[in-house]
Write a structure and sequence with these properties.
This protein is an alpha/beta fold and 343 residues long. It contains 4 helices and 38 strands. InterPro entries: Hexapep, Hexapep_transf_CS, LpxD, Trimer_LpxA-like_sf, UDP_GlcNAc_AcTrfase_non-rep.
Length: 343
């Protein structure tokens, strides 16, 4: 179990401590459940009423709430960001592999840097380059001539196809597939002719990809994931997609081929983005958004239909089917009004 002094917490968060520098914490806990030895935080003002009764060893708050706390206080600019940094410092998650397992199958010409770990039954093919401190989990497959940057970790059963390039400090969760063929076919008189996918996937630095996600290689050019992108579980990113710096994408989202997503976008869960469109920087798409056309301006966009009681939903659905007829009737009324005004 990791243990930190409050002085160390202040250094980690860049905060200002009011209290005992040598007091120890080993766990981050919710405010209402925190006990001695725990650190907690206030990010939602509605919980401020609990500060005086909080039993945590230290509470991380903004300066405006400092006087409301009874014990040790760490004043920080953003308590939620401070929580993330402290949680990282106290994290006890084990590495996905330690050392190089005897059952791993590694080609003779693989370039393995110092302190690389490779788990049981992993397969590393010819020409692969693994930089310092790379960790490859059990059962992973790394295809020919792939490159993985320093400090990147793969959990179990990740498949990295040939020539894929992954940057440094990335985290890729179990069962994800990167570099499989994009969905490219031509049709000749009813017969499907496969189009070889000749590009690859290039992933930047500090990228996290959730479990069971698929990122397809490009057809002619590469699929690109820029630095500092976070991608959730069970997502489909098609060939030639380009995702810009700092974008966050929630689970179940599907992005069709050759779509470009700008920097610092936020894509809600279960959204669907059409192919061959462009999304501007700073766009937020709320959950279940269906994006059929390019978005040229920064802002928040929504299209999902909120849940309704079944009887109300049936009425809504019936009205939707009558929209075309209603539109024709409205145009007829408008035309009649125009005729009467001109008379």
């Amino acid at each position: 179990m990791a243990t930190l002094t409050l002085a160390e917490l202040a250094t980690i968060t860049g905060g200002e401590l009011y209290g005992d520098e040598q007091a120890l914490v080993s766990m981050v806990s919710p405010m209402e459940k925190a006990q001695e030895g725990d650190v907690t935080f206030l990010s939602n003002p509605k919980y401020a009423k609990h500060l005086a009764d909080c039993n945590a060893t230290v509470v991380m708050v903004k300066d405006a709430q400092r006087e409301m706390c009874a014990g040790n206080v760490l004043v920080v600019e953003d308590p939620y960001v401070a929580f993330a940094k402290v949680a990282q410092a106290l994290d006890t998650t084990p590495a996905s592999a330690e050392g190089i397992a005897s059952s791993a199958i590694i080609a003779d010409d693989v370039d393995i840097a110092e302190d690389v770990s490779i788990g049981a039954n992993a397969v590393i093919e010819s020409g692969v380059r693994l930089a310092e401190n790379v960790v490859i989990g059990a059962g992973c497959f790394i295809g020919k001539d792939a490159q993985i940057g320093a400090n990147t970790q793969l959990w179990s059963n990740v498949s990295i196809y040939h020539q894929v390039v992954i940057g440094s400090d990335c985290l890729i969760h179990a069962n994800t597939v990167i570099g499989a063929d994009g969905f490219g076919y031509a049709n000749e008189k009813g017969e499907w002719i496969k189009i070889p996918q000749l590009g690859t996937v290039k992933i930047g630095n500090r990228v996290e990809i959730g479990s069971c996600t698929t990122i397809d290689r490009g057809a002619l050019e590469d699929t690109i994931i820029e630095d500092n992108v976070i991608i959730d579980n069970q997502m489909q990113i098609a060939h030639n997609v380009h995702i810009g710096y700092g974008t966050a994408m929630a689970g179940g989202t599907i992005v069709a081929g050759s779509t470009t997503i700008g920097k610092y976008c936020m894509i809600g869960g279960a959204s669907v983005l059409n192919g061959h469109i462009e999304i501007a920087d700073g766009v937020t798409i709320t959950g279940m958004g269906m994006v059929m056309r390019s978005i040229d301006e920064k802002g928040m966009y929504s299209s999902g239909i909120p849940l309704q009681p079944n009887k109300e939903w049936r009425k809504t659905a019936a009205r939707v089917h009558r929209i075309d007829d209603m539109n024709k009737r409205l145009k007829a009324v408008e035309k009649q009004l125009e005729t009467e005004q001109d008379a």
